[in-house]
Design a protein that fits this description.
It comes from Alcaligenes aquatilis. The protein is built from nine helices and 55 strands. Helix content is 14%, strand content 41%.
């Protein structure tokens, strides 16, 4: 029993604790009981108990207890902690018993312990860092003035330090649904490259051997490879086998020569995969000297996806890639950047040095689908049976100085995507022929929004118009048959800024589509320059070069509208129809015979608004009351009447009116008007038109356009509810 039971912690030098320890050790060594209680009220084996249980000497008992505990831990991992506690208790009991007849002596090292000899027989010497046993904490018993080994107090640490040490340590996440695993299995989920590199990671020393070993191990285990951030880059000196068959994580950077590969790139970082005609599937593509082949580069991108952060480039070396057909993996870019597939840089409009050649027997050159957002730059696509480039799906495709030749469709975009084409020559050679009824240099269809002759700014998401010298050039090889420079079809819409010639149709717009042909465009030497089919919209800006009056003018017509009056072009002379003003405010004119301006200045004509001819159309609606006199409606330019319409005094009620004027040149106009009033009767109205003032040089001054109402009888009234002004030409 313990007399004082102070509860003081181990190491106490209180006389009461020393008394209790002495009393307890006396009972442990000399008593007949098999167990005894220490001063913390814990049951311990006595000397008699140890002899009864093990029947071996003190040292053998301690070693066997530790060994049995280790074996039990390996066999029953879930009970490892309990087993180790039992071993520790038995060991401490044995040492306590051994020390009962002697004193404890402490030494820092084994050499220090030897230096303390001679010591009394039976003393116990504890060594803090035993250099003979890997720095373990050990105890020895003095016998015959020598140190006899008693026990290694660090058996658990030694066991954990073994290659399979992590196997005896349990791991379980805090969630109630988590299962228990050992630390070795948990660690094998991922592998750190640092586990294999034994050279300094200082940005200078090669780490190639360790990198290759780490990648091979991760591939064999099917585990992710972690690249922790280090002070210097990981240095690779040659291709890393299997690199793209392993998933990589972490913030490290690999450097080979001047090329750097970011394991987890940020927005400011760039990763480049290098491709060459001589590239190998087994290469890693991290530097120009270890290029991949093109298809292996696509597989590498997929392994890095499905979402890519930062700037990613697939760089094609110069050369001819014969019979190559690429389908881009369905990956997304995390930020504003586009996935860039590029050839060697060349001046804009120059023929690229990286050529993908279908040899006439390959259907597609490059296909982008899904959510691909890409820039294809400085690539030459030739002799593909269907498409040089085809984009399909809700992606964005920016073709920058891409050239196509002798493909049935040079560039095609379809199914909801955004198509940008900047620069490039897209042509058919004289020897090209196809069994297909139609060919297209550029095709936009199925809800695609196109910007042809525009670059794409990936920072702002805005289109930037090409200057005239960088407009895409579309060249055909015949003005007959089904050849088309560009076709917009089935709800395609957008701007076109091109130089197109030598086709049956330079630009063809059909099936509910829209094209806005920009002012710099050149459309000549075709059979028909622009054809607009029924139900479509073509806005053709002034200053389009149709080669008017020269041998380059389009053979049949410059602009043709087919299929009925339901096209936007309700008048044949209109090259452009644009609503330039709308006023939905209610305005009442009454109580005066003075002409009254309604809606202020509706629009100001500028010098460039008309080329050779043009027109204005004013549409309005409202109501007329009172039969005291006529009501006159006038379109005014610089205080001069351009055209008028008169409602007779006998007509009252709701009305709809249109005033149209065609301007040929200064002093030469044609005009007309119509209105419907009351219960639906149609009245031609009265109209008149005047020449613009001859003292205004045509097109040199701005001309404000306004609308006036004049009552013959002040007792009558006119209410204007809606005004629209359209500019034509």
């Amino acid at each position: 029993m313990t007399t004082y039971k102070t509860g003081n912690p181990i190491g106490s030098v209180s006389p009461k604790d020393l008394f209790d320890n002495s009393e307890n050790l006396d009972r442990a060594v000399n008593g007949a009981a098999l167990t005894w209680k220490d001063r913390f009220d814990r049951s311990r084996l006595s000397w008699a108990g140890i002899e009864d249980r093990a029947r071996i000497d003190i040292v053998a008992a301690a070693e066997q207890a530790a060994e049995e505990a280790t074996i039990q831990a390996a066999e029953l991992r879930d009970q490892a902690q309990v087993a180790r506690d039992d071993a520790r208790s038995a060991r401490d009991d044995a040492i306590a018993a051994a020390a009962a007849s002697g004193e404890f002596v402490f030494a820092e090292t084994y050499a220090d312990a030897l230096g303390k000899l001679p010591l009394p027989e039976g003393d116990v010497v504890e060594v803090g860092r035993d250099e003979t046993l890997d720095g373990s904490r050990t105890r020895y018993v003095v016998e015959g003035n020598q140190l006899r080994f008693a026990v290694n107090l660090d058996l658990v640490r030694i066991a954990l330090a073994q290659p399979n040490g992590a196997e005896i340590v349990g791991f379980r996440r805090p969630e109630t649904t988590a299962i228990r695993r050992n630390l070795l299995d948990r660690g094998n989920d991922t592998i750190s490259v640092l586990d294999y590199i034994d050279t300094p990671i200082d940005g200078t020393t090669s780490n190639q051997d360790g990198i290759m070993a780490a990648v091979a191990a991760a591939e064999a285990l099917g585990a992710d490879l972690v690249w922790p951030a280090t002070e210097g880059d990981y240095i690779s000196t040659e291709s890393i086998p299997g690199f793209h068959r392993v998933r990589h994580t972490g913030c490290g950077v690999i450097r080979r020569g001047t090329s750097r590969w970011h394991i987890a790139p940020t927005d400011a970082d760039t990763n480049t995969l290098h491709v060459a005609v001589s590239g190998l599937e087994l290469n890693d593509g991290l530097s120009p000297g270890t290029p991949l082949n093109a298809r292996a580069a696509m597989a590498a991108l997929l392994n890095c996806g499905p979402v890519l952060n930062g700037d990613w480039v697939v760089s094609f070396a110069a050369g001819e890639y014969r019979s190559l057909s690429l389908t881009l993996p369905n990956i997304k870019m995390a930020g504003k950047k586009l996935l860039k597939i590029v050839g060697p840089p060349v001046p804009k409009m120059s023929q690229p040095l990286a050529t993908l050649d279908g040899l006439g027997n390959t259907s597609f050159g490059i296909r982008a689908g899904g959510h691909n957002c890409i820039e294809l730059r400085d690539i030459f696509l030739t002799r593909y049976r269907e498409y040089g480039f085809n984009g399909s799906g809700q992606g964005l495709w920016f073709l920058n100085n891409v050239h196509t030749r002798d493909c049935r469709t040079g560039i095609g975009g379809e199914n909801n995507g955004l198509l940008f084409v900047s620069g490039g020559v897209h042509d058919l050679t004289s020897g090209f022929s196809t069994t297909s009824a139609e060919t297209y240099r550029i095709l936009s269809r199925f809800l695609v929004k196109h910007a042809i002759g525009y670059s794409y700014d990936e920072n702002t998401g805005n289109p930037i118009m090409d200057p005239p010298e960088h407009m895409p050039i579309l060249r055909g090889n015949t003005r007959s048959g089904g050849s088309r420079g560009m076709l917009a079809q089935e709800l395609a819409t957008g701007h076109v800024n091109v130089d197109v010639s030598e086709f049956a149709y330079g630009i063809d717009v059909r099936v509910s589509s829209r094209v806005h042909l920009d002012a710099n465009s050149i459309v000549k030497k075709n059979s028909i320059g622009v054809r607009v089919r029924y139900g479509c919209d073509a806005q053709i800006q002034p200053d389009i070069d149709f080669g008017l009056g020269t041998s380059d003018e389009n053979l049949i017509d410059n602009v043709v509208f087919e299929g009925g009056t339901d096209t936007v072009f309700s008048q044949s002379f209109a090259y452009l129809e644009q609503r330039v003003a709308v006023n939905k405010a209610t305005n009442t004119v009454a109580g005066t015979t003075t002409p009254r301006t309604v809606g202020g200045t509706l629009h100001t004509l500028r010098a460039r608004d008309f080329k050779s001819d043009g027109g204005l159309r004013l549409r309005l609606s409202g109501s007329v009351s009172g039969s005291g006199g006529r009501k006159t409606f006038s379109l005014i330019s610089r205080n001069s009447t351009v055209i008028t319409a008169v409602i007779p005094k006998t007509e009252t009620g709701q009305f709809v009116m249109e005033l149209s004027s065609r301007v040929k040149s200064p002093g030469i106009q044609q005009g007309g008007s119509w209105f419907v009033i009351g219960g639906g009767s149609t009245s031609p109205g009265a109209s008149g038109c005047r020449a613009l003032p001859t003292n205004l040089p045509w097109g040199s001054l701005e001309s404000p356009i306004s609308f006036r109402v004049e009552l013959e009888n002040a007792a009558d009234s006119v209410v204007i509810e809606h005004i629209e002004l359209w500019r034509l030409g």
